[in-house]
């Protein structure tokens, strides 16, 4: 089938490449000529395991092309995926200007039936707005062309995006039109492995399902972070508590790891946007406020622990940081806890020596050259002459460090482990103080 994807960002590229991989003819459109040039010359603008190889093989097979030509995009696909950004507005609500601009552009050029598929995370009611824009634009052209708008939210996780798309837990399709539902069912048929993963529902429920899933996961994390602080207060070990509650299948083991807060492009933004949607309709979403507030506080917890350990005397000290991306296996630093920590340390007059396996370039892009930030080539070099080590992101390579080497490098033998990633007893055995999130000292 012929598919057009508007937006060659994270979701757009993964969607495009995976639909091409199963045999569709995919044209990806982006307004950024630099991005399209890069993709056309074999480069990839983001780091995602497996993406580069799949782009290469599908381009070579002629099933995947990139262009800035919106008109060509509209002519190409029966399916017109909208996968452009929905950045937060000042009040936290999702800014729909890019989504609606794509809808307008599709309506300006379409001359036969098209299905507009909302893949971006968009608030409830967006499909109605997209339909209205298409209708108005067609009317202004005096064109009478049939179209449908479908909500088909994406649930992929960064770092596992290809696998999540190829082997989805669910494919949510929101439409009121049975014919459109059948066309989407056909498009997604190759991704239904052992059983039918496609869940058909009305458009608004599909739109809300996306936010509900992310808000639920964020709630689990904030709940565990709250409990880890309570565990510290009462002298319990959050690890034992985690295992104890996770054994109940109604609770489950997934997404109950305490840490130094959730980040990324989805949870913080989506929780705020859902709060905002509710607010704008007169409903005060109290639980969501709390999820957000707990996360905000949790992102400051490493700094608070460091400050307490050094009796508030941080000026002139240097701290080694391991992990800058918001989670392992990505270079994405949007709303990363590392940023809150580094900025607090800098404000207190401390310096940072940091290592991340892939996010150095992104760190440079965000912070530029500055005298209080050194990025090192490997993990151990970051600790040379540092006052303490802080683990912010649990990359696999940090989990089993050479503790005696850390002891030798650090001026003050202390590890602040923001993800409970290393074995505290081994650290203690090597003569290091180990400060965790909610574990017994
Ligand atoms: C999240 C969802 O997990 C996806 O299902 C969803 O499709 C995606 O958002 C989206 O809306 O596009 P992602 O942001 O890539 O995916 O990252 P996650 O793996 O969910 O991690 C989010 C944050 O939660 C990270 O900072 C991670 O460190 C933190 N986290 C996760 C915890 O602190 N504890 C946990 O137990 C799990």
UniProtKB/TrEMBL annotation:
The pathway noted for it is: Nucleotide-sugar biosynthesis; UDP-alpha-D-glucuronate biosynthesis; UDP-alpha-D-glucuronate from UDP-alpha-D-glucose: step 1/1
Q: Does the keyword Transcription apply?
A: no
Q: Where does NAD(+) bind?
A: 30, 35, 86, 121, 158, 269, 334
Q: What keywords were assigned to this record? A: NAD, Oxidoreductase
Where, by residue number, does substrate bind? 155-158, 210, 255-259, 263, 327
Family named by the database record: Belongs to the UDP-glucose/GDP-mannose dehydrogenase family.
Record-given protein name: UDP-glucose 6-dehydrogenase
Which lineage do the record's taxonomy fields give for this organism?
Bacteria, Pseudomonadati, Pseudomonadota, Gammaproteobacteria, Chromatiales
